[in-house]
Amino acid sequence: MGTKQQITERIGSLLRESKLSVTETRTKILELFMKSSGALEHADFEKLTGKTFDRVTIYRTLQTFLDKGIIHKIPTTDTSVRYALCKSECSEHDHHDHHIHFKCEECGNTICLDETDVPQIHLPKGYAAHTVEVVVSGVCKSCK
Amino acid sequence: MGTKQQITERIGSLLRESKLSVTETRTKILELFMKSSGALEHADFEKLTGKTFDRVTIYRTLQTFLDKGIIHKIPTTDTSVRYALCKSECSEHDHHDHHIHFKCEECGNTICLDETDVPQIHLPKGYAAHTVEVVVSGVCKSCK
DNA sequence: TTTTATTTGCAACATTGTTGCAAATTTATG
DNA sequence: CATAAATTTGCAACAATGTTGCAAATAAAA
């Protein structure tokens, strides 16, 4: 984890690497991602920051992070959109998140299982796969 | 496929089997599902029916169909919710849709690949899987 | 420190989804 | 087939979520 100071510095470099200005909103939101054990959705940021930031700013910040390959979206069957930090190998035009996602039916948390590879899918003839998204629902380690 | 007459009868039985009244809205929406090659989302119904039905009625109809196991949801990374018909083996408390979903990046269509099984996922110790959702993006047969 | 570029917050709006209730339709009953 | 009972529908009103333009504030560059 590291001290608060170290985290702030790490966030600073991450933003500068992505050619983004280092602002309070961006720093705070990245901090929340790093502290969190799982994926976050828009509403979480308003709660966790106590409405310090405008809704619009949060939307725009998340979009910017997506564009720069800092975070990725996780598919859901409801209208919420969940986001999680990408691994360091991701960049603006190249996502390398070849992991699956796990949603716990008990605690509601969604986490990235970074060690669990996305399986090979054997598609019918004529179909070309580009990306494969896997979301497993069940009971997580902590809730078992 | 069958004649219009036959489809209407099939829909009637399906609704009665699920202990639902046979109404115009429900018949029309099921008809659209059966005609459609892929998954549909709420907005499609308003378009396809030419605003014949109230938004609220469509929401409630889709929810009812979900509850009865007539349709299922497909996960997405945006705020839209996509629905598709379940296979005949599904019932109110028992879904048996063990297939993957394919979203074409060209035509935007989402389809159920009924012959393609959901792969076994080997989770880390401590995790219990309940359902596995797989959505593959790429280029479909027709767009290739 | 000043200039320039970027980001933020506000207002206003668009879209999507929900709830209560009266009217209309469907199903059950005599 | 007519009527009663149950269910479904449409409307109005609201809540939540997401978007856009623009002026003020902040960060980066000079």
UniProtKB/TrEMBL annotation, chains A, B:
Keywords: Iron, Metal-binding, Zinc. The keyword Acetylation does not apply. GO terms for molecular function: DNA-binding transcription factor activity; transcription cis-regulatory region binding; zinc ion binding. InterPro entries: FUR (IPR002481), WH-like_DNA-bd_sf (IPR036388), WH_DNA-bd_sf (IPR036390). Pfam families: FUR (PF01475). GO terms for biological process: negative regulation of DNA-templated transcription; regulation of secondary metabolite biosynthetic process. Zn(2+) binds at C104, C107, C140, C143. SUPFAM superfamilies: Winged helix' DNA-binding domain. Binds 1 Mn(2+) or Fe(2+) ion per subunit. Its cofactor is Mn(2+); Fe(2+); Zn(2+). Fe cation binds at H98. PANTHER family: HYDROGEN PEROXIDE SENSITIVE REPRESSOR (PTHR33202:SF22), ZINC UPTAKE REGULATION PROTEIN (PTHR33202). This is Fur family ferric uptake transcriptional regulator.
